[in-house]
Amino acid sequence: MNLLQQGAEARLFAANFCGRSCIVKERFPKKYRLQEIDEKLTKKRLSQEVKALQRCRKAGILTPIIYFVDTTRSIIFLEKIDGETVRQHIVSVRKMQEDSSYHSIYPMAREIGKILAKLHDADLIHGDLTTSNMIIKTSDNKLDKKTNEIFLIDFGLSFSSSLAEDKGVDLYVLERAFLSTHPNSEELFSVLLDAYKDVSKKSSSVLTKLEEVRQRGRKRSMIG
Amino acid sequence: METFNLEPLLSDTSISVALYENVTNASKLKTLIKDGEIHAALIKAEMVLDVFQVLVASSKAFYAKTQNKLKTKLIYTEILFNLSPSNKISECFKLFGVEDEATCVLVVARKEDFSEVDKHVEGDICPLSKLDNLCDKQYLKKLYKVTDEELKVCSLTDCVVSQMAAKEIR
């Protein structure tokens, strides 16, 4: 197995599982945490990830297929999605074109907005939305007009909630990620939000909350 | 018959999977397995969409054996158990095990045990690609509670495999 990436939370390996290429995600023990807390957190994140992947698929959102789960060693085998992250895509598109606008990426932003609307309407919160946690699958079929097949990945911090507050924070986290990784992308993000508004049935309360969260930051006041 | 290596979990284990039609001695085969004469799993062919489904169930079973975590008595019964969405052992045998008068049987065995099993099967071996015609897709869709929304984003096999893999996490 080849190490692909080493993050703070887990290691990713590339492997072959019964003839299909897969990603092995291993949540290793964190020595800096108290052992009991570490085990509890790791276990919880693994099961949250598995549950969210399944529920997303049930809601019609593209997520990797699960091939194998080992709860004792905290390992999951996932389908490998061939493609680039939305982050890589935005960066490379901007490098290629002469002006620094995001116009050519608007359709993709709309698509992401639609996906997030579906996610939130199913009462699922991703918990760690960034442009790196979305993968655009490169389609073999060039004639395929379904230009953007965007997969959501990395559901370790996801949970289920119907509160507008949680959905607002979810969008806020993405907004911060957008603005900090892609300079002057305010307009691009508002395109995404417009699509979200069009698709989501409960968008008005979520967007009001988003405005509120922008004023005060991600955490609610700690009083009381 | 095709042979598959169960890498990367168990690169030293290879299994052989074979599909038989016109089987006449399913009940005798079941007795032989019960008595420990032959080592194999017999699966109702109608319940398998794709050989990949069997490979996922087998990987889980052989891996559980190495961890001493089998939930059923044998690796081969564990394969049947892993194929089922339910956690009830008797139910999974009824759903995925072969009936005495079954004529289409999918056999799974260790590579080294396969030739011995093959000797006992009275039936015609046929290519695994035939599974696609044999399987009862509507029934599996219902059993695994696959929604139409889900089928828009992935194949039935993939939905089933995902649920099998995540069975213990509810």
TrEMBL record, chain A:
Residues 1-224 form the Protein kinase domain. Its EC number is 2.7.11.1. SUPFAM superfamilies: Protein kinase-like (PK-like). Gene3D superfamilies: Phosphorylase Kinase, domain 1, Transferase(Phosphotransferase) domain 1. Keywords: ATP-binding, Kinase, Nucleotide-binding, Serine/threonine-protein kinase, Transferase, tRNA processing. It catalyses: L-threonyl-[protein] + ATP = O-phospho-L-threonyl-[protein] + ADP + H(+); L-seryl-[protein] + ATP = O-phospho-L-seryl-[protein] + ADP + H(+). PANTHER family: EKC_KEOPS COMPLEX SUBUNIT TP53RK, NON-SPECIFIC SERINE/THREONINE PROTEIN KINASE. Belongs to the protein kinase superfamily. BUD32 family. This is non-specific serine/threonine protein kinase. It comes from Clavelina lepadiformis.
Automatic annotation (TrEMBL), chain B:
The keyword Transmembrane does not apply. Transmembrane segments: none annotated. It holds the Pfam family CGI-121. Its main location: nucleus. Keywords: Nucleus, tRNA processing. The keyword tRNA processing applies. It is found in: Nucleus. InterPro entries: CGI121/TPRKB (IPR013926), CGI121/TPRKB_sf (IPR036504). Belongs to the CGI121/TPRKB family. This is EKC/KEOPS complex subunit CGI121. It comes from Clavelina lepadiformis (Light-bulb sea squirt).
